[in-house]
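It is worth pausing here to work through a concrete case rather than discussing structure prediction in the abstract. The textbook approach is simple: state the sequence, then state the predicted structure, then interpret. We follow exactly that order.
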Amino acid sequence: MSPLERKEAGNQLFKEGKWEEALEQYTYGLEIENIPPDQKGLLLSNRAQCFLKLSDWQRSLEDANACLALLPEHAKSLVRRGTALEQLGRRDEALRDFAQVARSDPGNVLAVQHARRLREEISMQKSQRDDQSLPSRLLQRLDREDEALDACHEIRRAILERHQGLALLKLDAVPKLLALALKASQETRQAALQCLCSMTSAIPSEEDGPGKLPPAVEKARQQLRQQMAGKLLELRRLCQDAGSMIQLAHLLGHCHELEDEDALEVLRIALDSPEESVQRAALVALHGICDARRLLGSKGAAVVPTGCLQKCMESALHSPLQDLLQGLLAEVFALLADDEDRPEHLKVDLAHFGLLVLEPFLQSEDQMLQSNGLAGLTSLLAAKSKAAQLLQQSQAPLTAMLRALSSPGTDAWHCKAQNHAAECLLLAVSDASTFDPA
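Step two, the predicted structure:
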C-alpha cells in the first residue's frame, strides 16, 4: 500500500473510533521510503491526533513538531500541537499556536475559542500570582523613602479593592505602617494612618454574629492596640495637621477602650481642636468605643466614671456638633447606669457624676453651651430612672429648663435649648416620684 492509501485507511479507522489501529496505519505509511514531504507531514499530523485521543501528549507533540518542520503553516498541526502543549502544562506556548491559527483563519472556531479561553485563564492566573505577591512587594517599598507614599496608597487600594488585609496582616503590616507613621513626613504619615484605618475598619455582619468582626479585622485591632502602647502621645504630638489627627481619632475608635487613659487624652485634645472635622472624628471615635462596649453586654467590663472620661465629656460639650454629642452622652450615661452584674464597689452615683459634668453648661450664659447642657440632661434623665433624686441634688437642672423655656429668642441655639428643656420636663414628669411629697 502507498503512503496515501495508508493515510486513507487510517482515516477510516479513526472515524470509527479505532485510534490504535488508525495509528498503526499511519505508522506503516511513515515507514515507506521516499515519501513526498507533504504526504509525510499529513501522516505525522494524523498520527499526532491519534496520540491526543490516547492521551499520549508527549508523542503527539513530537509528531506535530515533525509535521510543522515540513509544513510550517499547517493549521491542524498547530492546533494539535497547541492541545498537546496545554496538556503538558506549557500554556503560553499553546496559546501562541492557537493564536497563530486564529489570526490566519478567523473562521477556525476551535482555534479562536481555545485562544480566547487560554488568554483569559493565563491572565487570571497571572493576576492571582500578582495578588499573592503584591502584599510582600508593597511592604518592601515602605522602607524606601521615595516610594513609601505611593506604597501606602497602593496598600490601601489592595485592602479595599482586593481584600488583601489578612495577607498584609500576616506579613506584619501593622507594626511597619505604625513605624512609618512615627518617622515619615506629614503626607506619608497621614497615608500610613489611612492604611491602618482601612485594616481595622469593618461593619459587623450577620454571618459573624451580633457585634462580631471579621477575624482579620479583629486581629488587626488587637495588634494595633498592642503596638501603640507607649507610642500614642508621641504620635499625637506628630499629628499636627487635621488630616492626620482625623485618621488617628478613627484608629482610637477602632482599637481602644474607655479604660485607655492615653487614648482618651488624645481624643480630648482632638475635641478641643478648632477644626469641626477633627471634633467630628473624635466624637465618632468615642461613640464607637462606647458602642463596642455596649455590644459586649454582660461580657464587657463595667464602665466607671474616671477623670479622663469626665474631661472628654466636658470637652465634647463645647462642640457645636450637638447631634453627635447627644448620641455620645446617651451611650456614656446608659453604660454608667447599667447596674446588671456590677459589683457593689463599682456602683455608680449617676446623678452625682452627671451633674458634675453638666452643671457648668446648664448655668452658662452662652446659648450653645446651655443648649448642649440641656441635651446632656435629656440623656441623663433618660438613663436615670429616678428624676427626683437628680433634681433634688441640684437646682441647676430645673433652673436651666425654666430659663430656656421662659426667655425670648429665635436663634437656632435658643430654639434647640427650648426643645431640650421641654423634653427634660416631659421625662421628669413621666417619673411619678418627681413630685411625690417628701
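Step three, interpretation. The two ends are 126 Å apart (CA to CA). The first helix runs from residue 3 to 15.
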